[in-house]
């Protein structure tokens, strides 16, 4: 991938590595927003309204994370890839298998598992980024803090 420019203090090779890491995280952030909306529309049961209303701010937050990640990629001279086929091309994590109308708690169990993978992947990226670009690492650290908070909300309904 050719970069348009580099930020001061990062060479092109380092910037390319950082952009590749961030692109993977951008794809998962975008996918997560879609998954959360799917669950939001399709859950049912006595817990429906509380969980349904909990999901909207979560979707907005994950979309904001994706926007921040995409802007960081652009700041580094890259071109953020955010089309559906880009998500699929960059996807190397397990998705969520819930389809159709399901019990709200079943969706939360599936989302809890998905979030565990998402947070682990972000933490792996943070470790890599710590040595490459502390600014990008800090952005993902903020994202993980929010994701863990959301996972705690989900888990409060489960455990």
UniProtKB/TrEMBL annotation:
Pfam families: Ferritin (PF00210). CDD domains: DPS. Residues 20-158 form the Ferritin/DPS domain. It comes from the Bacteria. InterPro entries: DPS_DNA-bd, Ferritin-like, Ferritin-like_SF, Ferritin_DPS_dom. Belongs to the Dps family. This is DNA starvation/stationary phase protection protein. It comes from Bifidobacterium polysaccharolyticum.
